Amino acid sequence: MNPHLPFPHERIAVVSITRHGIALAGHVVAALPGARLFAPEKFSTEAHAAAPGAASCYAGKTGEQIPILFSNFDGIVAVVSLGAMVRLVAPHLGRKESDPGVVVIDEAGRFVIPMLSGHLGGANALAGQIAHALDATVVLTTASDARQTLAVDLLGRELGWTFEASHDEIVRASAAVVNDEPVALVQESGSDDWWRGHANGRSGPLPANLQRFARLEDVDIARFGAVLWISHRPLPAALAAPLAGKRVIYRPTGAPCG
Fold first, then answer.
1. Could you give the percent of the chain with pLDDT greater than 90?
2. Which one of 52, 53, 57, 69 is least enclosed by Cβ atoms within 10 Å?
3. Of the candidates 190, 115, 184, 135, which has an alpha carbon nearest to the alpha carbon of residue 158?
4. Which residues make Cβ contacts (< 8 Å) with residue 52, sequence separation at least 6?
5. What local confidence, expressed as pLDDT, does residue 146 receive?
6. How many other C-beta atoms are found inside a 10 Å radius of the C-beta of residue 49?
């Protein structure tokens, strides 16, 4: 498994519906060993030539395959126009926590665009891997990636960390980060070296609106739009109410830092 992808290549479906697109899809499958190519039955010869041993062909409409792909794969790469793919997947959308990551590629192989579930679904990471393999341009539209700031729902994922937060808390904390509100980042446990590999890599400094602390009790909670707490400790009972709605708790693997 790629260390930045939340799923193995075997959970990736590559879809193309044109003869020229299938040739490009074959290059994508080659770059993602274990991925599988899906194409219309009328292009069976081209599909099997493009992805030997890794091609499946279907009869009927491509739209009929979408619920099947959604159920059986965690990542979907489509050599299809963005507009067409939007219409194909729209009836099948569920929740960002469970929808697969969807990436579209133009038929010329110039642009790779994460379309759905960029963070939690891994589409941004998948798009970056494909763009590197094809020497293409990845088009990131999620605010945290476009601005190279912290992605609240990805903090520590490449290190195996998990987080505890409601959907509303993730939304609030993410908004605070990208809108340059004061955000407290409290790290009591886990590796300190998480920024370089964060969300496929960050080369700049930690964003200026993030203020670091060594202990949760040192934070004046009222001053911050969100509190990101990295710790093995249970949440202190006295802080549960002041932090309600504005905290995200991260649980690192391994021994406490320091």
1. 68
2. 53
3. 190
4. none
5. 63
6. 13
> Three-class SS of residue 128?
helix
Task: Please give the residue range of the domain that contains residue 187.
Answer: 152-251
**CA-to-CA separations, 239 to 34, 170, 219, in angstroms, rounded:** 47, 18, 10
Among 106, 122, 141, residue at a domain's last position: 141
**For 57-78, how does the pLDDT look when each residue is reduced to its tens digit (9 = 90+)?**
999 999 999 999 999 999 999 9
> Both 160 and 137 in a single domain?
no
- Do 133 and 181 lie in one domain? The reply is no
pLDDT per residue as tens digits for the range 2-25: 547 778 899 999 999 999 999 999
pTM of the predicted model as reported, rounded to 2 decimal places: 0.71
Of 184, 249, 243, 182, nearest to 219 by C-alpha is 184
Residues 189 and 136 in one domain: no
User: Do residues 160 and 52 share a domain?
Assistant: no
Mean pLDDT score, 141-147: 67
- Identify whether the C-beta of residue 119 lies closer than 8 Å to the C-beta of residue 157: no
- CA 219, CA 183: separation in Å to the nearest integer? 10
Q: Which of 19, 2, 20 is nearest to 11 (CA)?
A: 2
| Integer Cα distance of 15 and 69 in angstroms | 10
**Contact (Cβ atoms closer than 8 angstroms) between residue 74 and residue 66:** no
